[in-house]
Write a structure and sequence with these properties.
Elements: H1 14-34, E1 37-38, E2 44-46, H2 47-53, H3 59-64, E3 67-69, E4 75-78, H4 83-92, E5 102-111, E6 123-132, H5 137-153, E7 159-165, H6 169-184, H7 192-200, H8 211-217, H9 229-244, E8 250-251, E9 265-271, E10 279-285, H10 289-292, E11 300-306, H11 307-318, E12 327-333, H12 336-351, E13 356-357, H13 365-374, E14 377-383, H14 385-390, E15 392-397, E16 403-407, H15 411-418
Parallel strand pairs: 1-5, 7-8, 12-13, 12-14
Antiparallel strand pairs: 2-4, 3-4, 5-6, 6-11, 7-9, 9-10, 10-11, 14-15, 15-16
This protein binds histidyl-adenosine monophosphate.
Residues 81-83, 112, 114, 119-121, 124, 126, 128, 130, 258-259, 279-284, 286, 302-304, 306, 308-309 line the site of histidyl-adenosine monophosphate (HAM).
C-alpha cells in the first residue's frame, strides 16, 4: 500500500511530464493571445460553495466530492471543478468593480470520487477559462474560440463541437414542467436517485449514467423547443458568430451538462477517438452563479478542458510523444585534480545557460563516456593531469566523432561559441 499511489491518482514524470510542461506552455501562450489572466484559487473551499454553486442534486455534489471536517469542524471540500472557486474569488476581490469583462484562466488539479478508467481519474487536472461581466453572445463565442484554438495548437482535429441552449429561468420552468409530464409516465422505471431528482431538479435525470434511465431519457422532450424569444435570439447569434468564424458545430439537444449553474448556451467538445470518456471540454453560460453566491447580478461564461483527456486524444491521433534526452556537453575527468576542475567548469557553463554535466559517481573514463552518450550530450571533453598541465584539451563532437583542440584558459567562451 505504501508503494502505490491512491486509486485514481497518478505520478507524472519523465516523458509524460515533458508533455505536460509543453501543453501548459501552449495554454499560457493561448491565454495571453486571447487576453485571459491567470488566477490560482485554493485546492479546498467551504463545502457549501459547491453545494450552492454546482448544485445539491448533481452527481458531483451527491456522490463525488472529497469532503471532510477540519480540526475546527469546518466543512471543507477538495475542489471538484474550478468555476465555483473562480466565481467566489471574483466576488471576494470585487473584480466586478473593474472594467468588464473580467477574463480569467486556471490550470488546476480537481478531485472527484468516480470509478477510475482511462480518461477518468479521482485527481485530474483542468484548464479552464471564465469570462465574467458580459451577457452578449459574442462572449460565448469568444470562449468557444479559445477551446477550438487550443485543440488546433495541440494538433488535434478529430473532435466535434456540440452546442445547445438550456434557456433562462423562465424557459427552464416551462421545460421542467414538460419534462415532468413525460418522465412522470416512466417514474417507476427510473433509478432511486432520479426518482428523488424528479421533484427537485428533473433536468439532472437527463445526465444520469444508469442504463435504465438512459433509455427513458433518449425520447425526452428537448429544452430547445421551449426557448423564449430572447434565449432563442441569443442562441441564433451564437450560431451566426460560429459560422462567421468558420468553427464547425452540431446542435445537440442532448447536451445538458452535469452542473446546475448553466443558463442559455452550453457546449462540449467530444472526441470521436477515445471512446467512453470522449468529452474533453465542457462549458457554457452561467448568468446566476455570482448572484447566488451573494454578489451582484453578473452574467458569465466559461469552459474547462480535462488535461488528461486532452493528452489521450492527442496520443490517439498523433501517437505517443518521445523526448530524446539532450545535453550540450559532458565534461569527464581522470583523477582528483581534474574532478575539481571539471565540476568547476560545469558550474560556470551552467551559469551561462549551457546544459553541461559531469560525473558524480567516480566512474572509469570509459563508463563516463558511455554516460555522456546516454544523456544525449552533443559534445564531450575529458580533463586529466596532462590537460591541466598543458592547458589544452580535446572537445569531441559526439555525433561526427570529430575532435578539435582547445585552449583551457578561455574554455567557457569557446564552448559557448561552439554551442
Ligand atoms: P465538467 O464537464 O464537469 O465541467 O468538467 C470539464 C472537463 O473536465 C470534462 O470535459 C473532462 O474532460 C474533465 N473531467 C471531468 N471529470 C473528470 C475525471 N474524473 N477525470 C478526468 N477528467 C475529468 C466543469 O468542471 C465546469 N466547471 C466547466 C465550466 C467552466 N463551465 C463554465 N466554466
Amino acid at each position: 500500500m505504501l508503494t502505490k499511489a491512491p486509486r485514481g491518482t497518478k505520478d507524472l514524470f519523465g516523458d509524460e511530464i515533458n508533455e505536460w510542461v509543453e501543453m501548459e506552455k501552449i495554454i499560457r501562450n493561448l491565454c495571453s493571445d486571447f487576453g485571459y489572466g491567470e488566477i490560482r484559487t485554493p485546492i479546498f473551499e467551504h463545502t457549501e460553495l459547491f453545494q450552492r454553486g454546482v448544485g445539491e442534486t448533481t452527481d458531483i455534489v451527491q456522490k463525488e466530492m472529497y469532503s471532510f471536517q477540519d480540526k475546527k469542524g469546518r466543512n471543507i471540500t477538495l475542489k471538484p471543478e474550478g468555476t465555483a472557486g473562480a466565481a467566489r474569488a471574483y466576488l471576494e476581490h470585487k473584480m466586478y468593480a473593474n472594467p468588464q469583462p473580467t477574463k480569467l484562466y486556471y490550470i488546476t488539479p480537481a478531485f472527484r470520487y468516480e470509478k477510475p478508467q482511462a480518461g477518468r481519474m479521482r485527481q485530474f487536472h483542468q484548464f479552464g477559462i471564465e469570462l465574467f461581466g458580459a451577457e452578449s453572445a459574442t462572449a460565448d463565442v469568444e470562449v468557444i474560440t479559445v477551446a477550438a484554438e487550443l485543440l488546433k495548437r495541440m494538433g488535434i482535429s478529430k473532435v466535434k463541437l456540440h452546442i445547445n441552449s438550456l434557456g433562462g429561468p423562465e424557459c427552464r420552468k416551462k421545460y421542467n414542467q414538460k419534462l415532468k409530464e413525460y418522465l412522470g409516465k416512466n417514474l417507476d422505471n427510473l433509478c432511486e436517485t432520479c426518482k428523488e431528482r424528479f421533484e427537485k431538479n428533473p433536468l439532472r435525470i437527463l445526465d444520469c449514467k444508469k442504463e435504465s434511465c438512459g433509455d427513458i431519457v433518449a425520447n425526452a422532450p428537448t429544452v430547445l423547443d421551449t426557448l423564449g424569444d430572447e434565449c432563442r435570439d441569443h442562441f441564433e447569434m451564437v450560431k451566426t458568430l460560429l459560422d462567421e468564424m468558420g468553427i464547425e458545430y452540431v446542435v445537440d439537444p442532448g447536451i445538458v451538462r452535469g452542473l446546475d449553474y448553466y443558463t442559455r448556451t452550453v457546449f462540449e467538445f467530444i472526441s470521436t477517438d477515445i471512446g467512453a470518456q470522449g468529452t474533453i471540454c465542457g462549458g457554457g453560460r452561467y448568468n446566476n452563479l455570482v448572484e447566488e453566491l451573494g454578489g451582484p447580478s453578473t452574467p458569465a461564461v466559461g469552459f474547462a478542458v480535462g488535461l488528461e483527456r486532452l493528452l489521450l486524444v492527442r496520443e490517439a491521433e498523433k501517437g505517443k510523444k518521445e523526448y530524446a534526452p539532450s545535453k550540450d556537453i559532458f565534461i569527464g575527468y581522470i583523477g582528483e585534480k581534474a574532478l575539481v576542475k571539471a565540476h568547476g567548469l560545469v558550474y560556470k557553463l551552467r551559469q551561462k545557460g549551457i546544459k553541461a554535466e559531469s560525473d558524480h559517481l567516480k566512474k572509469s573514463v570509459k563508463a563516463q563516456m558511455k554516460y555522456g552518450d546516454k544523456i544525449g550530450a552533443k559534445y564531450s571533453m575529458i580533463l586529466g593531469e596532462n590537460e591541466i598541465n598543458t592547458g589544452k584539451a580535446m572537445i569531441k563532437n559526439m555525433e561526427t566523432r570529430e575532435q578539435i583542440e582547445v585552449d583551457l584558459s578561455n574554455i567557457v567562451e569557446i564552448i559557448g561559441d561552439l554551442i
